[in-house]
Write a structure and sequence with these properties.
The protein folds into two domains: 267 residues, 3-Layer(aba) Sandwich (Alkaline Phosphatase, subunit A), CATH 3.40.720; 101 residues, Gyrase A, domain 2 (2-Layer Sandwich), CATH 3.30.1360.180. It is built from 16 helices and 17 strands. Helix 10 runs antiparallel to helix 11. The N terminus is likely disordered. The strands form five sheets. The chain has a seven-stranded mixed sheet, with helices on both faces. Strands 11-12-14-13 form a four-stranded antiparallel sheet. With 399 residues, the protein is of the alpha/beta class. Strand 3 and strand 4 form a beta hairpin.
């Protein structure tokens, strides 16, 4: 389930060539490598331990906190004393960052977590992407317009393979996620348990861990991300959510049954973007960026741009000229060759990628005020390959 990784360079040289973009650490330190490593330690056939420093445990729990990036956690130790304590091995845990994968967005990252595959394999390479079969933009988080889930993502999840190997496997999340297509193709396998409150989820996750001699349990909390989008990652509302989720992690850690390991991670970090014309480039008001473009996909900091047939080269040239040094701008084949979506891209996924792909380097977004009014008003944004978005925590507690 893991693959060799292309080289990574977090300190990118000038000029902003495609090869200078800091590619996620696929195959040795990305979200896609976490579950295969844990499953390998429990003896599940076909799994590889791509993160070898994780010591095998009989019972493993992954708690994914939506939107809690590594840099945001480091910047707020007072609001997260328990999580901060896990950064030091002397306090009973170990902490390091891993990379989310590109783009650093929820649908892509959850698919990487659940399948153990990079985006180029699982095929959810963005917030919205073109469906080659229909020519329409598909929102892969909301699954709109609807398409057959198992055609869109045909690979088994790690949860399914773990369950088939006799490991007690469970997901504990909001009841609203039970039957969503994203859950079915990324997070299904074993049993699903819906609970509304965070406290109920923590208590049930601990119980599910204890239910088997070997167990794999996944649980999830969304509102850190929600408050970041609406108010920003340095707002009182965001800080309050961080304080709450810190208590949730401690509550779960204190209930771990014997021979257990708890891993706390996230799907992406976040960047606050100022509300000014220099920081928010409006595609719907920019005739140069619109020229030759048939569809605008992705999100503000990780755009898939689909050109009118025959205009691909002109669109690439124009986007590079207009965006200058604020974005890494690549043609589809360049991004694939550079490993942005993983070591390879499935044939079925190729047409989902933009003819041009733009990943933000600076604190800037490409909004679309008319076609994406709600998204264009978000304070906190994510998607690109900067450390603030790409690095997510991997914190460990063992019993």
């Amino acid at each position: 389930m893991s693959h060799p990784s292309p080289p990574t360079a977090w300190q990118d040289p000038e000029p902003l060539e495609v090869a200078s973009a800091p590619v996620p650490e696929y195959g040795k330190g990305s979200l896609a490598d976490l579950l295969p490593t844990l499953a390998s330690g429990m003896g599940v056939p076909g799994m590889e331990a791509a993160i070898p420093e994780l010591t095998p445990a009989d019972r493993n729990c992954v708690f994914l906190i939506d939107g809690l990036g590594w840099e945001q956690l480091l910047a707020h130790p007072d609001e997260a004393p328990f999580l901060t304590s896990l950064l030091a091995s002397s306090r009973g845990g170990t902490g390091r960052p891993i990379t989310a994968g590109f783009p650093a967005t929820t649908a892509t990252s959850l698919a990487s977590v659940g399948t153990g595959l990079p985006p180029g394999d699982h095929g959810l390479p963005g917030y919205t992407v073109r469906n080659p079969a229909t020519g329409e933009l598909m929102n892969q988080l909301r699954w709109n317009p609807w398409t057959q889930p198992r055609v869109w993502q045909p690979y088994p999840t790690v949860f399914q393979l773990t369950d088939e190997a006799g490991v007690h496997t469970a997901q504990v999340s909001s009841p609203t996620f039970r039957d969503t297509p994203l859950t079915k193709i990324a997070l299904s396998g074993g049993s699903f348990h819906g609970r509304l409150s965070g406290e109920e989820r923590m208590d049930l996750a601990a119980g599910q861990l204890a239910a088997g001699d070997r167990s794999l349990v996944y649980t999830y909390y969304a509102e850190v991300d929600g408050k970041g989008h609406r108010f920003g990652v340095d707002s009182d509302a965001w800080r309050g959510q961080l304080m709450y989720v810190d208590r949730l992690v401690q509550r779960l850690a204190e209930q771990l049954p014997p021979r257990s390991a708890l891993y706390v991670t996230a799907d992406h970090g976040m960047v606050d973007i100022p509300f000014d014309e220099q920081s928010r480039i409006d595609f719907d008001e920019d005739w140069e960026l619109r020229a030759g473009v048939a569809l605008l996909g992705g999100e503000g900091r990780a755009r898939h741009v689909y050109a009118v047939p025959g205009a691909e080269a002109d669109v690439l040239t124009c986007w590079r000229e207009v965006l200058g040094e604020q974005f890494w701008v690549a043609g589809r084949d360049e991004a694939i060759a550079a490993g942005w979506f993983g070591p390879r891209v499935d044939e079925r996924v190729h047409g989902r990628l933009g003819d041009v792909i733009a990943a933000a380097r600076d604190d800037v977004v490409i909004i679309a005020s008319e076609r994406e009014p709600k998204e264009s008003l978000m304070v906190g944004n994510h998607g690109s390959m900067t450390p603030a978005e790409q690095l997510v925590p991997l914190l460990e507690v063992r019993s």
